[in-house]
Amino acid sequence: MLVIERKEELSTYLATQRQAGKKIGFVPTMGALHQGHLSLIAASLSQTELTVCSIFVNPAQFNNIQDLEKYPRTLEKDRALLKEAGCQLLFCPAKEEMYPAPTYTSFSFGPLETVMEGYFRPGHFHGVGLVVSKLFHLVQPEIAFFGQKDLQQCRIIEQLVKDLFFPLEVQLVPTVREADGLAMSSRNARLTPAQRAQAGIFYQALQLGERRLREGIEIGRVQAEVEAFIGQNKAVKLEYFCVADGGTLQPAQDVQQHNELALCIAGYIGEIRLIDNLLLKI
Ligand code: AMP
């Protein structure tokens, strides 16, 4: 596996590969890799001829400085995992490489970011839009792979690609979970064993929501039941549970009016913020 830190070197190398007719797949990450990330790599390997993974902890998308400082960094282990998975190229730039000078360009995503993660993490999606645009320009992939775990991010990237004519396809890859249903996340490594034992509750809450919606219970009541379910567990603090349209992510009122619903949840266990979602067709 080739490891590149400099953007000029990346562009030069990828230009030769493109000229040789290779189809490029791209998996952007912030590292501390787990099976969820590796499923994106596997999806890229099966559909393209050259898989590029980036590892870059993007300061611009952190609205909480402590979260940025404490974000796990395990580059050597990540490198070994990527190599074993068959990834062909790792791009792991330093901060100065991606942000050589202050940036003034600003991203906002209208109604897609006034809800959920965008509401609770102001500026987060600006940072995502900025770094993903930079990376798309450098890598110029034919397909970029994103995890459904970060559904709002996926919808925002789809909008970015559409608005800015990026000539690439965005593919969503299903969420990979632990045995108890907890969505794999780099942040899970920061949970104490006691906290980890409670963390499956978010998935249980989503499943409860799904079951009640399928039983025909109206959205407002499902919302209240899920909130009460989480409320019973004193170790967990719910930030939001939202039943939204699967495409626009705007709050849903009536199940019948949507092709696809997204059940989205975010909350804290101790200081660790976790998110999860389910997409469902009813
Ligand atoms: P991150 O390193 O957290 O920025 O994530 C990089 C990519 O991996 C994003 O597209 C995430 O949505 C995706 N991802 C993270 N966790 C999972 C998971 N459990 N299953 C599938 N994809 C995931």
Explain what this protein looks like in three dimensions.
This protein has 282 residues and is of the alpha/beta class. It is built from eleven helices and nine strands. The chain has a six-stranded parallel β-sheet, with helices on both faces. It has a three-stranded antiparallel β-sheet with strand order 7-8-9. Helix 8 (151-163) links the parallel strand 5 (143-147) and strand 6 (169-173). The radius of gyration is 19 Å and the shape is globular. The mean pLDDT is 97. Bound molecules: adenosine monophosphate. Adenosine monophosphate binds at residues 29-30, 36-37, 39-40, 146-147, 149-150, 173, 175-176, 183-186.
Secondary structure layout plus pairing:
Layout: E1 2-4, H1 7-19, E2 24-29, H2 35-47, E3 50-55, H3 65-70, H4 75-85, E4 89-91, H5 95-98, H6 116-120, H7 124-139, E5 143-147, H8 151-163, E6 169-173, H9 193-198, H10 201-214, H11 219-231, E7 236-245, E8 261-269, E9 272-280
Parallel strand pairs: 1-4, 2-3, 2-5, 3-4, 5-6
Antiparallel strand pairs: 7-8, 8-9
Helix pairs in contact: 7-8, 10-11
Bound molecules: adenosine monophosphate.
